[in-house]
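Narrative of activities, Objective 1.

The group set out to show that a structural description can be obtained from nothing but a protein's sequence at a throughput compatible with the screening campaign. Below is one input-output pair from the validation batch, recorded exactly as produced.
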Amino acid sequence: MHLTKQEEAMLDGEMGEVAQKSLRLLVRLGEIYGADRMIPVGSVQVAGVSYKSIGDPGLDFLEDFAAKGAKVKVLTYLNPAGMDMENWKEIGFPEEFAKNQIRIMEAFRKMGIVVTATCTPYLAGNLPRFRENIAWSESSAVSFSNSVIGARTNREGGPSALAAALCGVTPNYGLHLDENRKPDMVIEVDANMEFNSDYGALGYHVGKLVKNKIPYFKGLNNPNTDQLKALGAAMAASGAVALYHAEGLTPEARDFDVSGLEKVQVGKEELKATFDKLNTGETPDIVILGCPHASLREISALADKVAGKTLKKPIWICTSRVMKEAADRMGFTGIIEKAGGRVVADTCMVVSPIEDMGFKTTGVNSGKAANYLPGFCNQKVIFHNVDELVKRCL
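Output recorded for this entry:
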């Protein structure tokens, strides 16, 4: 692998221990995947943020790096934390958990990382451009940036993303290369796709089908960006899809002739079977929306649905702090809270300790959350569209 003189100096330890360790990790990663060189990245998104996910070993690692003066070289955001960083006590997150989560965020802050904890950084001030090389970690953010925006990133692990942030570069392999962004299979969709949950079900089904290949969708009926992020998030969770193309919708779709590719049809029967499979509960203890983190459009829609009503079961909608503050200003948060719900920032149902907060059955409209909640949070799941979920809370 070719390294610049500056990179060689970094690898030799001339820029400190942290930079040396970080570049060494990136070089080894590049060697494994046959990268020819390092390439600069425009931004980074780091996973491994929730104390639930990384525990004491991760906390010790981050505090050690911060104490040694580690500083990022590019705009760097964080994946969701394990709790709402401002209102954790009011919502009911455990105090010991909160203390450790706060220490994690402080370590990241000392490294110059923007402590905006979200799986939708593109909605919160970190928006890459078309064909920009980035190093992002969170699977749904990787899918959205590659597919809908047309930026270029592999699905980084937490350590490799942090290393990229500290060095400003990433190995040139995988989805950074033109030849690895070609579609492998055509998915012909023939179904009524109305709700985000429909796109989540489609994504879950297709992810299981294609695994880590690149699907090319035909027949999607003008989905909005929230529906496209639901589609990509579910594919990344049930399979390992980091990039998809959609005819007439995503920027690189026009670059490919897919006439000779294998074709698979997906219709209402496959979607119904997916909903049936993912539903393992009967009555929700809580409904949690916002996986991936909700946009202002989704928060506004929930406010409309619960306005003037009283919820018998709580509804949370998870989002970034940026979107939460916009919702506060627009009055959406007040409407949702008056009904008995909450707009929860910085975290989501998958990485927060909801199993320790008395919840055993969670209602979601997210294919990604429906896939992860049984294993990560020991939850039974009710997977449905947002209208039905709100009805079950009234």
